[in-house]
Amino acid sequence: MYTRLVMVRRYATSTVTKSYPLRLQHLAKTPLYEALDNRYKSGTLQIVQSTNWNTKTTTSSSSEVLTETLNSTRSLPMTKFPRQEILEQVKLDPKVGQWRKFITGWFRIGIYLLKMYKSGIQDTFKVFWDTRNVKREFDIKNGSLAKLVREIEMSEVTIKLSPSSLSKKADVKAASIPLSINRKQLVELIRRDQIWKLPVFFSLVFIFEEISALIFTFFPRVCPYNCLTPGGYKKLSNIYIKDTTGINDNRGLCPLEFNKQGNIKYKPPYAIPIENIYSFLKCFPQSMISGWKLYIYKKLKLQKLLCDQLEKIYQYFLIDDWLLLQGILKTEDGAAKVVLSDKELVNCVMERKLYRKDEDLNEMVNDSLGKNILLKRLFLYWSLRYDETVSFNGEHTFSEKWGVDNISLLKYNAEIVITKDI
Predict the structure, then answer these.
(1) How high is the pLDDT of residue 335?
(2) The pTM is what?
(3) pLDDT digits over 388-408, tens only?
(4) How, if at all, do strands 45-48 and 338-341 pair?
(5) Which residues of 353-368 are buried (b: 16+ CB within 10 A; e: fewer)?
(6) Which of 97, 136, 312, 369 sits at a 20 to 30 Å CA gap from 376?
(7) Which UniProt keywords apply (predicted)?
């Protein structure tokens, strides 16, 4: 009996797990979080459905006009597939006999899918064509992202040295220093490479027609991004979160680490093993490099080239976040309404891994409670990264706060997903 008792050890939860609610409460009280939350509650920031699709596959504009420079809905997939609406319309149609209703309903769903694919192919071509001039000026594959990051850093230094920065304002607002590119141009430069999926995609649609939707549901990476159904998008989001949040050392970018003070540890790109970088890059939804190149880099142990791709994603998030926050918190014409598409909200949450495996982001964004949860997670994410930075009425530049290319910021942060504690 004594032997059993001495082998019993007191179980203690890790300090990181215990501190989750405390850090969440701290983030929710930061000036940046409160400013974003106030914008949303006051109606200055709105999330709306960009288009309302009826069962005849025609679109009608939302009652709120989307902010042009912040949204690119034509390059993103739908958030709701109107299967029930189509079946209900057929059920109530007196011209369709009772014995034909089941077949007619599913036939119209197939026709809807084909028209959606047609619209997606056209939009993919438009994005590629419309961004050709922007690509000449900003070639994201050859250093343009790094130049834009330096542009942000220079604006931060300018703000920090300006006399007006000495007086603290009561409200958090973004300094009105425009970037040489707007957010719509940035994200379309990232998404324009979806055009290279069209040959395989078109061939599968031509051969299998309506049945091709099943193929794209199980193999979503074959499908252009804006042609994905909600089912295919959920499959893609599960693949992304599964391969980047595992506690196993050879999956994702390794678990997030904290120091004794509870702060996120600094991790440069070259401190991440090659296998982990490859695992992260191959699952990133909007990859800036083809999979076969990544595989060659891994096999030949070309760590520098893999780290370069990882740094590009880091830079993309920094620029994208900065442009979004500048748009939402801009000081000029502060009363102006900022309207974001539900598609952009879902895409921001997925790219930044602000969700759990098996969560249906499209279903959440179409529910008022779910939409508030997604927004809350995004606000917490922004507060963690950018609170107290000079661009948003703080004292430090982003690099001073986090260091240069801190890859820890790309790791899955489970505490931000635990929004029930706020």
Answers:
(1) 56
(2) 0.87
(3) 888 887 788 899 899 888 998
(4) parallel
(5) bbbeeebbbbebbbee
(6) 312
(7) Membrane, Transmembrane, Transmembrane helix
